[in-house]
Amino acid sequence: MTAVSQETDTTRVVKYRQLRARRTRERMIDAVVAHAGEGNYRISVRQVCQYAQVGRKTILDHFGSLSLLCRVAARERWRDLPLPAGAPTDQERKALAWALLVGVPRDV
Predict the structure, then answer these.
(1) How far is residue 74's CA from residue 98's CA, in Å, rounded to a whole number?
(2) Considering only CA atoms, which of 37, 33, 105 is closest in space to residue 72?
(3) Angle between helices 56-63 and 3-37 (to 10 degrees)
């Protein structure tokens, strides 16, 4: 095997692992959003693991804690959350999503 083909194989493996990690991350965020869509804003690690088909360690590897996963979901996917119609502006919707998922008001 030449040095060029070995480098190409290594690059492909790295790209595949990065893609797989992004998909896993999205599945975990999807789990939080899906449970919030059902009215469950206090999701458990077990629920995330079951929905996203991952182990507990995967949550820790990607986010460090369930709390940080919920913060990321609130920050990145607040538009996907079914929030009450009483929050008309985007800023109010973001704040409500944060409060529901994280459990504390967001510092602006």
Answers:
(1) 5
(2) 33
(3) 100
Q: How far apart are CA 95 and CA 42, in angstroms?
A: 17
pLDDT digits (tens, 9 = 90+) for 23-63: 999 999 999 999 988 888 888 999 999 999 999 999 999 99
Q: What b-and-e string marks burial along 17-55, b requiring 16 or more CB atoms within 10 Å of the CB?
A: eeeeeeebbeebbbbbbbbbeeeebebeeebbbebbebe
* pLDDT of the residue at 79: 81
Record the tokens describing residue 83, joined without a space.
């929030």
End-to-end CA separation in angstroms for the chain: 56
Residue 41's nearest CA partner among 18, 12, 19, 70 is 70
Q: Does the pTM of the predicted model rise above 0.90?
A: no
The tokens of 3 are what?
């040095």
The proportion of the chain whose per-residue pLDDT surpasses 70, expressed as a percent, equals 83
